[in-house]
Amino acid sequence: MGRWLELDHTADLALHVWGSDLTDLFVAAATGMFSLLAEAAPGGARVRFEMHLTAPDAESLLVDWLNELLYLCETQDFVGTEFVFAILTPMELHAEVAGLPVGERRADIKAATYHMLAVVAAEAGYETEIVFDV
């Protein structure tokens, strides 16, 4: 199962994320981002969305994934709590995202960025650092 750790950053928010495979990495990145962003409203009605994304590489796909989730949060008042991938390769994903309405906001994240971003194959899977513009 993927994990994440919040990093100190001078002006923005940042996470170190790792997982045993790309699925773990993408789920941990989304979970970490939502933990920085907002808390789900208890007892809210569960909602589901489907996502289909393509990109030229894993880094672009990760940024697109996180920014699409941010868009859902802003436009649909949504906090993602469950992420299921039908397809996930370094250049394509098809996922079902489920979640709850936003309860308490913690931060205002504008976007996931490419700043120093590299999805790296590590001994135990994949890892990356993601910086969020706030």
How far apart the termini lie comes to 28 Å
| CATH-defined topology | Archease, Possible Chaperone, Chain: A, domain 1
β-strand number: 9
The SSE string, one letter per element, is EEHEEHEEEEE
**Helix and strand composition category:** alpha+beta
The CATH homologous superfamily is termed Archease domain
Shape: globular
| Average residue-wise pLDDT | 95
Strand content: over 45%
CATH class: Alpha Beta
Instruction: Tally the helices.
Output: 2
**Low-pLDDT segments:** none
C-alpha-based Rg, rounded: 14 Å
Described by strand count, sense and barrel closure, the largest sheet is: 5 strands, antiparallel
Domain module count:
1
In the CATH hierarchy, the architecture is 3-Layer(bab) Sandwich
Helix content: 25-40%
Spell out the blueprint of helices and strands.
Blueprint: E1 3-7, E2 13-19, H1 22-37, E3 38-40, E4 47-54, H2 58-76, E5 78-89, E6 92-105, E7 111-112, E8 120-122, E9 125-133
Antiparallel strand pairs: 1-2, 2-9, 3-6, 4-6, 5-6, 7-9, 8-9
Helix pairs in contact: 1-2
Account of the protein in words:
This protein is α+β, with helices and mostly antiparallel strands and 134 residues long. It has one domain (3-133): 3-Layer(bab) Sandwich (Archease, Possible Chaperone, Chain: A, domain 1), CATH 3.55.10. The chain has helices spanning 22-37, 58-76; strands at residues 3-7, 13-19, 38-40, 47-54, 78-89, 92-105, 111-112, 120-122, 125-133. The strands form two sheets. Strands 1, 2, 7, 8 and 9 form a five-stranded antiparallel sheet that branches. A hairpin with a 2-residue loop joins strand 8 (120-122) and strand 9 (125-133). Helix 1 runs parallel beside helix 2. The protein is globular. The two termini are 28 Å apart. 33% of the residues are buried.
